[in-house]
């Protein structure tokens, strides 16, 4: 039986907040989207991006991950890392990762380089390292020390923008369940583009607000949590990727109904249908760096 993973979330607290423009289109007009216990999401009336607004300021958000998580978060990550890793490996398989890996291994004279942004305990990077990749990671939570010791390579404990990796040094970038946590996700995507070699790929995983579970459960959806500042649809995420200089090539979704909400046979049917028709609870977008930025 597969282990059920409970989504980690910090308690809802009073934090300094500030109104912000839409992170996708810059719009200033919003309407209420989801009313959750202690906080709410709004939807941009121009582009439909869903976000918490007013938004906790960046210093408050970073303090959650650097200070408030502490050893409890590391324990949570370690307890669930095997289940997380299996999900990540299945997602990579769906996205054609192993074909891409074979091409890179055969075409390059040195091992290809992969960057995992929000690498947690480093379990995925350890898996890739064993397969012959050169690995690098970014992680601002206390899990960074564990990942660094495990991998034997430095892990940046700053934001990606402050990590100052060289231009065009990676063949692949991965970001799993990261983008929705950031105050302003667009600059991160721009920085990823700078770091990728021409034609290289980004594989980005995040909850899907247009999925079946989000539509059924609304403000009780398991991804509508205090730590998720943004909730993307396929359309809004593709638009942000295109704006940042990527060409989205494929979209994959999975997860029909959460474990325990319906009998297992119905869950299996819902999961299979959601994956086949693209309304899964989680999505992965495989996007390629554009050769030239469009203005």
What can you see in these coordinates?
This protein has 295 residues and is an alpha/beta fold. It has a single domain (17-289), classed as Vaccinia Virus protein VP39 (Rossmann fold, 3-Layer(aba) Sandwich). The chain contains ten helices and 13 strands. It has helices spanning 58-68, 70-94, 97-107, 123-130, 143-151, 160-163, 185-195, 212-217, 234-243, 264-277, and strands at 17-18, 30-36, 39-44, 50-51, 55-56, 113-117, 134-138, 155-156, 170-176, 196-207, 230-231, 246-254, 282-289. The strands form three sheets. Strands 8-7-6-9-10-13-12 form a seven-stranded mixed sheet, with helices on both faces. A four-stranded antiparallel sheet has the order 2-3-4-11, with no helix packed on it. The chain is globular and about 55 Å long. The N and C termini lie far apart (51 Å). The model has no long low-confidence stretch (mean pLDDT 92).
